[in-house]
Every structure is written in structure tokens, then in C-alpha cells.
Amino acid sequence: MSWGVDNLPYGVFSLPGESPRVGVRYGDKVLDLTAALHDEVFAAPSLNPFMARGRTAWHDTRELIRNKLTDDLSVTEPHLIPLAQVQLHMPFEVGDYVDFYCSLDHASNVGRMFRPDTEPLLPNWRHLPIGYHGRAGTVVVSGTPVKRPRGQLGEGRFGPCEKLDLEAELGFVVGVPTTLGTSAGAFEEHVFGVTLVNDWSARDIQAWEYRPLGPFLAKSFATSISPWITPLEALPRIPGRPQDPEPVEYLRRQGDWGLDISLEILLNGEVVSRPPYSSMYWTPDQMLAHMTVNGASLRTGDLFASGTISGPEPGERGSLIELTWNGTDPIKLAGGETRAFLEDGDTVTIRATAGDLTLGEVSGTIV
Ligand code: MN
Q1: How far is the CA of 5 from the centre of ligand 1 (A)?
Q2: Low-confidence ranges of the chain (pLDDT < 70)
């Protein structure tokens, strides 16, 4: 079954008139963990207290929930609430938010578009996972409407964004705080799970503002995440994409942290792209090692995202700017409409599967 015992993602839900608390999705129901496990850590309106307990607790809890849903199902049944009755909330309290740029194909496409006369990749790209600090306070849960941002679109031009875009990404949620120089090998001690991310982007604002300090208002107005956090333990792992040249020592891989996740981007219900996470160049353990190598620490609830996921094929691009080549080749939708960038009323949904598992979806409508 979809959302079966091999999946069991965590989220925060509420019933009408009750406070939000932690649950696990099972089929079309939510298991109320406070009631089922008699553990007050799940009575919190966020996953942070549970995530801070660490990897052994994550594993043991997962085993306990599996038992409750198989051997003890008759006892557990009253604590399974139909999804239709609940409201889903932000699953965790976001600490810091970092966005990377780990797709070779995405970085190459953007390079070709904006620097057609030079090498697509800047000289540093194959040596470190490029990233920037985003805005944690505007990370919102799937279903939250996204207001079209206003800003400077060029010299002397101010108004609503005319090139509103999406970015299909995977986000990694930190459970256990890290300290100086956390090695790539310690990845699964610290990272609790993954969420789908839509890093909404205002391309016209971005093009005018980003030199020399990088993305700012073009990215900070909203970032959407899926309501269910899939535990790292549930995800099928594959070797990462080969890297050339071999990175410096702190970035060397010590495990297989490529992830076999297939994404789909839907625009108003129609699939417009299928980005494969397996094609990513830098792996999440390398992102973690890179973020902490300078002495920076991470806290429970920190979120780091992969950057736009694009595969090598035209039908695998993870943003509209790539799919339409900066608006010059608009997408043709089934109803005869075309899209260069997002229009008011458009709904973008990103959904994903990992083998037999579903990671659910993150959705948002432009208002
Ligand atoms: Mn991004």
C-alpha cells in the first residue's frame, strides 16, 4: 500500500479545536503519536523536540510504530485519524535555511543561458558545493498561497515580478546539532529526514540584484515545503554521481548518499518535467561537511536544500527558466495555453517517489 509501514513520514496535524501535535502518516490516516506511544515529546506543535533526541531514538521509535501498526493494530486503531479530518501544519520550526546549487545540469544550463561565450560552469563549481543563506522565516507549508513579489526589475523599474519561477528541490532537515567540521561520514547522525522544497524565484529581481553578493529579495518572499518529513532511514540509497576532479579531503564521500528519487513538476495539474535526483553532482553528506568546515554550527530544525534538481535531458529540468530557456520557448499546456513564467492563479505541485515510497507533494498557488 502507498504510505505503508516502510514509509511512515512525520508531520504536525490538528483536529478542529485542538492544538497541533506530531503524527505519522499511514495510508490515508494520521497516527496520533502522543496517544499511541504515550510520549509527551509528540505533544509539541513541531518535530524539533523529537528530532533532537538523535538517531537511536529515531530508529527505535520507527520500530515501535511499525509494531503498533502490525502486531498491535487493534489497540492502535482508535489513534488513527482520517486525513480528511485534520489540518496539516509546518512540520518543524525552521532554524537557519541554506540553499545549495548541486545540480551539474542546472548550473550548466544557467551558465549557458547567461554566459553563452564562456565555459558554462564557473571555475569553482566542481571544487565545492555553492550555496547561500536563505530566509528561514518565510519557509511555509504546502498549500500556503504565494503572493507575487514586488521589487526592482531593472534600472528605474519597480513593480510586480514579471518572471516568477519555481525550483524543484529536496530539503534536508537537521535533527542533532553539529559543531566544528562535521565530517561527511557523520551525516546520518545529524540529519533526520527529507522534505520536498519549492524555492520560488523572481528571475527579474534576481538578475538585477544578485551581483556581487548573490540571491536576496528574489528568493526570500516564500519557500514552500511538503508537510511530511520522510526519515532518512526509509530512503533507498545509491552511489553518488562520479566527481571529477576528486574533491579536497573534507569533501570526500564516505558512504553512498546518492538518492534514487524521481520528481515530477505539475503546472495546473499537468506534468511539465520529471527531474531525477540521482543525477545530482554534490551529495547531501558533502553539503553538511561543507556547511560546517569553517566552524559554523547547525541547530535542530536547520534546513538545507539541494538547489534546483535538473537532469541531463530537456524533459528533466527543474525550473521554468530552464524549461522555457529564459522565456524564449514557452511551455505549451494541454488546454492550448502557454507559459513562459508563472501567472496569477497558477498552481505548482512538486511530487516525488523513491522506489515504492511516495514523498508526497508540495503545492502552492500564485496570488
Ligand atoms: Mn534554489
Answers
A1: 32
A2: 1
Domain boundary among the residues 35, 54, 89 is at 89
Looking at the structure, tell me whether residues 192 and 332 fall in a common domain.
Answer: yes
- The pLDDT value given to residue 182: 78
Let me know: does 308 contact 103? Beta carbons within 8 Å: yes
| φ, ψ of residue 186 in degrees (nearest 5) | -95, 10
The range of the structural domain enclosing residue 173 comes to 97-365
The pLDDT score that the predictor gives to residue 184 is 82
First-to-last alpha carbon distance for the chain, in angstroms, is 36
CB-CB contact of 273 with 265 (8 Å): yes
CB neighbours of 91 closer than 8 A, spacing ≥ 6?
Answer: 10, 11, 12, 46, 47, 141, 195, 225, 227, 228, 229
pLDDT in tens, 13-46: 999 999 999 999 999 999 999 999 999 999 999 9
Domain shared by 68 and 183, yes or no: no
Residue 307 alpha carbon to ligand 1 centre in Å:
4
- In a domain, residue 256? The reply is yes
Q: Is residue 5 part of a domain?
A: no
Model pTM above 0.90: yes
How many Cβ atoms are within 10 Å of 312's Cβ, its own excluded? 13
**If you measure from the C-alpha of residue 37 to the centroid of ligand 1, how many angstroms do you get, rounded to a whole number?**
37
Please state, in angstroms and rounded to a whole number, the distance separating the CA atoms of residues 325 and 327.
5
Strand partners, 338: 332
The answer to whether residues 308 and 198 touch, using CB atoms and an 8 Å cutoff, is no
Q: What is the mean pLDDT of the chain?
A: 97
- pLDDT, one tens digit per residue, over 341-354 is 999 999 999 999 99
The C-alpha cell that represents 244 in the structure block: 571529477
Which residues are the active-site residues?
106
**Final residue before a domain boundary, out of 63, 89, 115:** 89
